[in-house]
Amino acid sequence: MEKISKEMNVSQATMFLCFKKQLGIPIYKYITEKRLIYAYKLITEGNPPTKIYSECGYKDYATFYKAYVKMFGHPPSETK
User: Fold this and answer.
1) Domain that includes residue 44, residue range
2) Which residues, at least 6 apart from 43, have a Cβ–Cβ distance to it below 8 Å?
3) Residue 76: other Cβ atoms inside 10 A
4) In a domain, 5, yes or no
5) 17-27 CB burial, b ≥16 within 10 A, e <16
């Protein structure tokens, strides 16, 4: 976020406010949703969840698992 705001020559606070105003959701929620949608795609293509979490931007499987369940309502292992 810092790099992007510097490139746009605005403060991070301004960037966050503009993003939320334009899309109606906070930037971090947007990024999280995009990561999880990508994870869903990889899982449906046959990739094991325990192997793809880091590719989707998560540092550990537990954090990925919790976010996945929160968004989709079921664990990654139940995705078909």
Assistant:
1) 24-80
2) 49, 52, 76, 79
3) 21
4) no
5) eebeeeeeeeb
Whole-number Å distance between alpha carbons of 52 and 19? 28
Show pLDDT as tens, one digit a residue, over the chain (80 residues): 888 888 889 999 999 999 999 999 999 999 999 999 999 999 999 999 999 999 999 999 999 999 999 999 999 999 98
Considering its fold, how many domains does the chain have in total?
1
The CATH number of whichever domain residue 62 belongs to comes to: 1.10.10
pTM equals: 0.82
User: Does residue 62 fall inside a structural domain?
Assistant: yes
